[in-house]
Design a protein that fits this description.
alpha/beta; 2,3-Dihydroxybiphenyl 1,2-Dioxygenase, domain 1
Length: 140
């Protein structure tokens, strides 16, 4: 199964979520989505189904399997949504076979999704996620 050429989210690990949100909303005039508001993540829907997400950097490092230390972590995560739960593990395996490194194996999340993380050959972090509330086609 090929790793489809799709990108749905760019997540930035930020040092101060409120300050960063104000920068994008008040400084740049962007409008945040209501989605994720209560979970400590800020989403800005962009064109063509792409979204920018802001997430506290230390929490993001922990989420991707790097622990609470943020030294050496760029704080940037690229994310692809897949259409089926089992595709998460399949794409992680494909990335590993191609020389990537699994940071966090696929796991079920409390919000109902299934997520795993890998780093490519240069250490860029990818999230592979199945979200039962959204199909990849709905996201763009």
């Amino acid at each position: 199964m090929p790793f489809q050429q799709r990108l749905h989210f760019i997540t930035l690990g930020v040092s101060d979520l409120a300050r960063s949100r104000a920068f994008y909303e008040q400084g740049l005039g962007w409008v945040a989505s209501e989605r994720g508001k209560s979970s400590g993540v800020v989403y800005f829907p962009l064109r063509n189904g792409l979204s920018l997400a802001l997430f506290p950097k230390s929490a993001l490092a922990e989420e991707v399997g790097l622990g609470p230390a943020v030294n050496g972590f760029s704080g940037t995560v690229l994310s692809q949504n897949v259409g089926q739960r089992e595709e998460v593990g399949q794409l992680l395996h494909l990335a590993q076979q191609a020389g990537g490194h699994i940071l966090k194996p696929a796991e079920d999340k409390a919000w109902g999704g299934h997520v795993g993380y890998f780093a490519d050959l240069d250490g860029y972090v990818w999230e592979v996620v199945w979200n039962p509330k959204f199909s990849p086609d709905e996201l763009g």
